[in-house]
Each structure stands twice: as C-alpha cells, then as structure tokens.
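Bumping with the actual sequence this time:
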Amino acid sequence: MQPDYIFETSWEVCNRVGGIYAVLSTRAASMQAEHPDKVFFFGPDFGDHSDIFFKEDKKLLKDWLQIFKSSIRLQPIVRGFAEIRNLQIPVRVGRWKVPGEPIAILLKFDALWPRKNEIYGWAWDKFRVQSHAAYGDYDESCLFGYAAGMVMESLYQWIMKNEKLKIKNKPEVCAHANEWQTAFSIFYLQDYCPEIATLFTTHATSIGRSIAGNGKPLYDYFEAYNGDQMAQELNMVSKHSVEKQAAHHADCFTTVSYITARECKQLLDKEVDIETPNGFEPTYVPQGKDFDRKRAEAREALRKVAGEQLGGVVPENALFVCISGRQEWKNKGIDVFASAMDKLAQMIYHSPLPNQQPMDKPEVVAFVMIPYLDRAPVRNGNVSIIYVPYYLDGHDPLFGKTYYDLLIGMDVTVFPSYYEPWGYTPLESCAFHVPTITTSLAGFGEWAARQKERYGVIVIDRNDSNYNEVAEHVAEDVLRFARLSPEETARARKEAAAIARKADWKHFFKYYRKAYEIALKKRTNRINELINPRLL
C-alpha cells in the first residue's frame, strides 16, 4: 500500500531554522519523482521571510482555494461545544524553491488565538495533552499544527469530490507531521478526518535534548531516566506531553537513527515503527569543472575574509577547518571544538617532527559558522579562529555567499557532537567531498562507522566522561589531515564523497515507503475499530 497523495508539514517548510529544513528540502525531489505534484508541504506564512524560499502561484489549486477562502468555516473548534463563527485561515499556494519544486501551502493561524483554551481543552479530553504548563513557542506551534490540520482536511475533501482521478479506487492520503511543533495536525485529523493515515517523526526528543543541554549526563544513567519525571524537573511538561501523545497516537511513528529510537523507547515509552535516516540530494553539489571552479572561488573568499579578520596574508596552502550548526555549546560540540583548536595550537608549537618539512608547521584557519555566536578572531602560535555569526543565505555582510558555496572550499570539518540524533552537517560535508570528523553519539556517525570508507569520515567514540580525550583526538586528526600528502588528501576526499553517495535519498527513501505502508495499514485497522468496536 502506497499513498496517492502526501501531505507533509513542518515549522521549517519554506522557513530555514535548522536541520529539518535540510531534511525536507532535499527529500522533496525524490518525493516529486514518485508522486509528481501529489506532494503538498504545509508551512507557516511569515510574509517576506517566507518569500525567500517560496514563489506564489495563484493558478495552482485555484478551484480548491476559491472554495476554501469562501467557506464560512470548516469545523467548529470543538463539535457540539463551541459556537460556529467565521474563521479565516489565510493561505497561499505556490512552489518551494528547492530541487523538485514541490507544491507548498503557507498559512496564517492568527484567527485561532481567541480559541486557544478551547483547543487545549479538546486536546486534553481527546488525547490527554497537558497544555496547562505551556510557555514560549508552545502556543504558536500548536495553533499552527491545528490550523494545518484544518487546511489538510479541506484539501482532502476537495480531492475526494472534485479531482479527476485516474485510479479506480478511493485515493489514499498520508499526512506526515515533523516534530512536536506540528503534532496538533495529527490530533485534528484523527478526530475530524480519520480517513487520512498519519505519520509522526521526532528528529530529536524534546526531553532528551533538554537533559543534554542542561548539563545532565544523558548516557551514563540513560536506563534510569523517566521522561515524564524529567519533564517536570526541567519545566518541559507541555512540549514533552504533546510529543509523547503524538508518538502514541500516530498511525506510524518514526525517528531518524538507532540512537534516537533508543531514546524514544526510554523517554517517550514508545518504540518507533521504523527508522527513517536522513539522506541528501546530490543535485546540490556541482559537478566536473563547475565543482573545481566553485571550490577555487570558495577558497579565495575564505582566504580574503581570513586575511581581513586577522590583519595579514593567509597562505594558499592553509588548512581550512569549520564547524557549523545551531548555537548549542555542549550538544553540538562547540566546546570540544574550541578546546581542540587550543590543543592543536600547542601540538604544532611544541611538537615539531624530525627533519621538519614546511607542512610540519601548518597554518590552520578554523571557521566557527554558528549564527549569533559573535566573538573576536583568535590567533594562537599557527591556529586562527574566525567567528561567522550569520545565517549563510547569500546575504550576510561578511561573505555574501551561501553555506554550501563556502563548505565546498573547506579541507576538513569537525562536528564533535554530544547530542545529535542524526547530524546533517557531516553528511553535507561529505557530499561536497570534504572529509569530516564526528562522534559515535551522532546518528550519522554511528551509521558511518558501519561503512567501509573510514578514510573520509573519522568517528570518535564519545561518552559522558571523555571530553578531554575527544578534544585530544580532534586535534590529532586535524593535524593529521594538515600533513597528508596530495595523494592521501585525494583519497580522503574521494571516500567522503563515497559515503555521501550511500546516503543519497534514492537509497534512503525506501524507508519512507515502508513508513507510508505501515501508516495506511494501521489507519485501516483504526477505522475498522471505530466502525465495529467488537473487533477489539
């Protein structure tokens, strides 16, 4: 069983915030190839910001849009409980400006704010979601998810009644919600439109990330943690509750790696139905002479900015190293990276090799590409650190280039993560033929360690108590890369690219096909149980 239509929602549809944007935007091409224009991505509408990634097309779904905009409303917020009022959910239809150019539907959810308490009461009554302790971004996320469910229901009903289908049977539809921010769409659909099969993916459990981010030892005492208890202690009750209930109620529950699947079982009391590892779309990577040109341009830009920041000329053979991602000092291993660069400087200064050659004293320039992490450049013996505190979308004041336009010029990347359910950054690095250093606590690192290409991806064993050893290993590995011969460098770059090819979406999308099948079968059983409770 496979869906004829796929509805997928995330807070990061046409809204680049973190790694989930990369997951969805790169997977879109594979989805479009199998379901041309039968894939609909639903995201929040942030106006001009959304238009960076979104191109409106008023001809797309024109008939549905007219019906949707003219309808008084879709459903009472709580059937038989709330007064039916006019409710406007402004939507725009267009294309997501990524490979495959899937249809995207952006929506505003402001009209739901006055009904927030009714919605939360309904969520408690139906699904035992504890919203009473909500704060911060919980409200807008849940209201967006609920609104997305409303729009999905409307589109589903229109497809059922008006689409000229080339299939004999009733079309199958799957709705896929990513992360707790969109979980209310699952609750809405299961209550008001149970014919749609639902999937929920947690890319990282909120409570696991919180435990790690608060400096608690996540791994040494892992089997002793109780998710509900820790949610109380860390003031994460509502987010944990909505995520846990979505995991238990969705027709198919997935996560991105073995590491996080283990976390879900322990902290959410729910085993995943299937692991869906994150792939990469190779069309993002230039080929042939275009690749060489892009790499040369990137290296020239890196040398220029490094020279300006450090007040001197950077040699052409300098080793360019980088770390990137969200500003999570411990979880992303930024602390380890900083320590490793200090250790590297000491190694270069104090430990010359016999019969020194020029590259025995390499010049290393490390770029910390972390948005909002703004510090002065640091120069120590032959190691310099330059902070790039911007989202690299091509409009930053330092480079004016995208992250991928600069990544291609690196010699090695370092992502010594402590908490990393998958790890898109090391995979992106490999895709651009850049060797990378990561850890066994990253889902990608755990996967890469099982592959035979060990020269392009260095996976360092990490646990709760070996911080200094990890920093030492990173420093040694970076120094080793600096001293590789041209032939060894070429081999490392070749093997990095080979690892990325194994993680191509054409290989990993099969896990989603299985997830859709699981969801559709579970949906059928769920509806049968609703119709005939005796089947229980």
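The tokens above came from a reply further down the thread. Confidence is low (pLDDT under 50) at residues 76-86.
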